[in-house]
């Protein structure tokens, strides 16, 4: 028997070299048809002892009564098989409660004829896998679009079996960045001060266009070969850990790419959501239909009306239009209400966490998937890894809409979420508004100040992820009109807020973009120095102009200070109503637990942040903050290392930000 995939049970690693998941040629048995099995492997000793195996082959008999499965594993309990309305798929249910690490045979018969015999591996879990620590307030997340960060292995840029080839001159094409490019620059990232890497999807995207962004996945168990291999990804995570860096996987539960192999032979007629346009004719959703046939049904696209999910007055069809509609015709919408698909997606997420050694998941387009499934998915992951973390994307400026999805929120409709974290789009939007607007009664800093009052709607606001930009937003330096003091205020706010902070690659070297409408390919431009013939190198600093050097040094100082500041990581927040274009915040960490805000404790570790929009020198009267400053006689500037006496006032020389570490008397 020959295999396109082999398993190595040593140290729980899997040699995933399959062209399409686990495709096994069983020519030495009684079938020459290929067989796909997913998950590729599993582990003994998981919290959930149940395992669903999905097998696909055209050789499987249409008559389910003819099927027989034998499991030759020690303490591997066979609980039965299930089929859908597509006879090419077989689901095997196992109980691994007592099973130890081993490789066992699965034998499949049609009547008395053996069709397949294949080995399946239960690996030993890595030590401490269940207790792994997810990303937290102690971290700074660095978002990387891998195709645009660095090309460490030009030999993998083009692949014969991939539809799209490298086109570096095309802003919407592939540029060649890869896993090796990230690996080669781990030292740069560690010295910058980040502690977690969120990498846009690395899985296979065998689409004809726009495959670089990674969000139209065509194989959920295979790293795109233009990025590297499964082993390369696993190796990257291992090397990152050695430098104090965790890795967060970008997961897409809502949809797949139109060239996913499922679309050639759907597992069941309800595997996808295919809402019809009124003018659709002769529509078919039979499981054996090709994607060409599915396309002829003209599936409806999502309305993007996300409030319908929680709106007590929303029409049921409006709710379905949002959840079941497709993003675009190249992204078929998955029906997570199908229990077999739901289990498949849950197991896939767990597989990557366990296989690669991940410290978190960022879930794309969170609210677009079925909400009952989302709770099932998050509960399963958090039960498997109690200290893990997951952040969901809910792109809205409305805090109430975001708050609905966070664990612990008591919702009026009774919906219970188990999602620990969400992206804080509302605070991000207000940060931009407040910095770009002139100061007034209801403009400028007051918007940022008052937005924080909305934290009362969140179950756990400190667990939200606040960012200065991401792969879908225009570059912050451009949005702030390339004003360096405003940029420094924005970055300081993100890094000192009572949130988990996230930085977008290239922000530290002032990467720019258009500011009107969306220009995704330009926003995700190449990091300077990551590609051949770069005249500027952000990694080494060669060719950076004075402002870029200043910005990079600023970020490095800020992040490395935060790495060792309990006040900025987990301290209480106290802020004061902005006055005269000046906004003051404190972060304070108590030395011992006590009631009330730690900023009023004389011996607490305290950091004072002063945001100043005034171009001319200003004198800040400190008497307003006397209750906080009690016990502190001086302060040291984090950026300049200058010492300030905390007497009656502070002179603010110009627009910008002061970050002061308060010193005890």
From TrEMBL:
Task: Specify the domain of life of the species encoding this protein.
Answer: Bacteria
Pfam name, any one: Cyc-maltodext_C
Q: List keywords of the entry alphabetically.
A: Glycosidase, Hydrolase
Signal peptide positions (record): none
Q: Name one GO molecular function term.
A: hydrolase activity, acting on glycosyl bonds
Residue ranges annotated as compositionally biased, kind Polar residues, are 282-300
Listed CDD domains: AmyAc_bac_CMD_like_3 (cd11340)
Under what name is this protein listed?
Answer: Glycoside hydrolase family 13 protein
Q: Which organism is it from?
A: Shewanella decolorationis
């Amino acid at each position: 028997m020959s295999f396109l995939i082999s398993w190595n049970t040593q140290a729980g690693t899997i040699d995933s070299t399959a062209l399409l998941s686990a495709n096994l040629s069983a020519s030495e048995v009684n079938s020459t048809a290929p067989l796909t099995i997913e998950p590729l492997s599993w582990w003994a000793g998981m919290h959930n002892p149940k395992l669903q195996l999905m097998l696909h082959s055209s050789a499987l008999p249409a008559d389910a009564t003819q099927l027989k499965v034998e499991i030759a594993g020690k303490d591997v309990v066979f609980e039965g098989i299930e089929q859908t309305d597509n006879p090419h798929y077989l689901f095997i249910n196992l109980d691994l409660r007592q099973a130890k690490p081993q490789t066992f045979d699965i034998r499949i018969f049609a009547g008395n004829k053996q069709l397949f015999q294949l080995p399946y591996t239960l690996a030993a879990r890595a030590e401490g896998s269940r207790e792994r620590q997810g990303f937290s307030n102690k971290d700074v997340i660095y978002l990387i679009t891998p195709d645009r960060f660095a090309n460490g292995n030009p030999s993998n840029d083009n692949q014969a079996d991939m539809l799209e080839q490298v086109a570096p001159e095309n802003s919407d094409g592939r540029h060649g960045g890869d896993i090796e490019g990230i690996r080669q620059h781990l030292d740069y990232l560690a010295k910058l001060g980040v502690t977690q890497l969120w990498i846009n999807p690395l899985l296979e995207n065998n689409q004809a266009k726009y495959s670089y962004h990674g969000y139209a996945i065509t194989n959920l168990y295979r790293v795109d070969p233009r990025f590297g291999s499964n082993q390369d990804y696993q190796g990257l995570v291992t090397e990152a850990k050695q430098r104090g860096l965790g890795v967060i996987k970008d997961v897409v539960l809502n949809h797949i790419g139109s060239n996913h192999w499922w679309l050639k032979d759907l597992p069941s007629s309800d595997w996808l959501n295919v809402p019809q346009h009124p003018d659709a004719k002769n529509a078919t959703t039979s499981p054996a239909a090709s994607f060409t046939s599915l396309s002829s049904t003209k599936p409806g696209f999502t309305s993007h009306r996300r409030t319908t999910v929680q709106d007590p007055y929303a029409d049921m069809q409006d709710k379905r239009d949002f959840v079941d509609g497709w993003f675009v015709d190249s992204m078929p919408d998955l029906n997570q209400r199908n229990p077999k698909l739901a289990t498949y997606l849950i197991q896939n997420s767990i597989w990557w966490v366990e296989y690669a050694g991940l410290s978190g998941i960022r879930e794309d387009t969170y609210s677009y998937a079925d909400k009952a499934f989302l709770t099932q998915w998050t509960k399963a992951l958090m039960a498997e890894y109690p200290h893990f973390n997951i952040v969901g994307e809910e792109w809205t400026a409305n805090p109430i809409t975001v708050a609905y999805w966070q664990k612990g929120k008591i919702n009026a409709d009774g919906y219970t979420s188990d999602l620990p974290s969400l992206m804080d789009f509302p605070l991000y939007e207000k940060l931009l508004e407040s910095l770009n607007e002139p100061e007034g009664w209801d403009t400028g800093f007051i918007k940022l100040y008052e937005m924080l009052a909305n934290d009362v709607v969140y179950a756990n606001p400190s667990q939200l992820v606040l960012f200065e930009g991401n792969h879908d937003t225009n570059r912050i330096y451009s949005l702030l009109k390339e004003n360096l003091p405003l940029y420094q205020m924005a970055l300081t706010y993100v890094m000192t807020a009572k949130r988990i902070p996230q930085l977008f690659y290239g922000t530290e070297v002032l990467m720019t973009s258009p500011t009107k409408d969306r220009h995704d390919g330009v926003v995700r431009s190449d990091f300077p120095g990551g590609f051949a013939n770069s005249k500027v190198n952000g990694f080494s600093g060669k060719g950076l102009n004075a402002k870029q050097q200043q910005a990079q040094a600023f970020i490095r100082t800020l992040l490395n200070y935060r790495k060792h500041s309990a006040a900025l990581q987990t301290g209480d927040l106290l802020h004061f109503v902005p006055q005269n274009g000046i906004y003051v915040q404190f972060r304070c960490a108590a030395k011992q637990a006590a009631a009330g805000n730690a900023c009023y404790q004389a011996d607490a570790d305290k950091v004072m942040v002063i945001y100043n929009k005034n171009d001319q020198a200003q004198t800040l009267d400190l008497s307003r903050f006397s209750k906080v400053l009690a016990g502190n006689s001086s302060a040291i500037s984090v950026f300049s290392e200058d010492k300030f006496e905390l007497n009656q006032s502070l002179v603010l020389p110009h627009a910008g930000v002061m970050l002061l570490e308060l010193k005890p008397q």
